């Protein structure tokens, strides 16, 4: 009996030891799993943090690169615009809209205003020809006389070629300067593009739709880049439409190297403002021509050169209700106009 009790006690102790051993192993295993899970989470968290830092750095790098590109682009655009503006300043383009015109007290003008009821100046522009070449000023004056007094009725389209063309000697035109590709030549009527360019500026400032307009192949010195218009009878014309509900009276006059053109109707147009962006530019060069009448060391500047450029133009229109409307005018592409010098040989 005593032996059975001892055996029972031993069995209980063995079971207790086994239980304690299993419990300890299970606890250790659980702790290992917890530690492993914690390590895994730590590794994953560290990985996510690194990924996040990498993503942030990548996005920052992209943004920095994008910002640098934007800054570089803006800098280039600014430099191009400033270069063209500086060039135009050096040429001294003084053409602009005007409120005072030389025909204000002209009796024929007053009679025309009374006849058509066009008492309100819509817009007027004065184009100044810098150092006009032979025949240029004369042809502008001839064209201005033919243009003066033209009436454009509502919904009708004005055409320069139909109004003051053809540009032939029998109509009073002489030989004058003309652009042909990248060269300056002479043709009968050369110079009447000054009338087209001035009409273009008046029509734009009068908020009239342009039906046809062509830029010169090279820049001109009497209006800013993007504000010129060229014509060639039979192929290139300048045209605009009268979209107002009243007739438009055109009055024009050439005085020395100045050309004045004004539009008159029954109401004032909204405020219109030009805008230009230089998309690209190309430096000009020098061309030398022979003039045997010059001395051996003499050199004469005949034409002031201008850089070539691609110009994007648009206008903003401020309506009476305060709203602003933007109208795109497209691109004007100019080859460089070379400096032309004359020398003996």
From TrEMBL:
Keyword list, A-Z: Membrane, Transmembrane, Transmembrane helix
Keyword Transmembrane helix found: yes
Keyword Manganese among UniProt keywords: no
Signal peptide: none
Taxonomic superkingdom: Bacteria
InterPro entries: Glycopeptide_resist_protein (IPR052913), Vancomycin_resist_VanW (IPR007391)
Pfam families: VanW (PF04294)
Region (Disordered): 45-74
Transmembrane regions listed in the UniProt entry: 6-24
Residue spans of biased composition, Basic and acidic residues class: 45-67
PANTHER family to which the protein is assigned, alphabetical: EXPORTED PROTEIN, EXPORTED PROTEIN-RELATED
Protein name per its UniProtKB record: VanW family protein
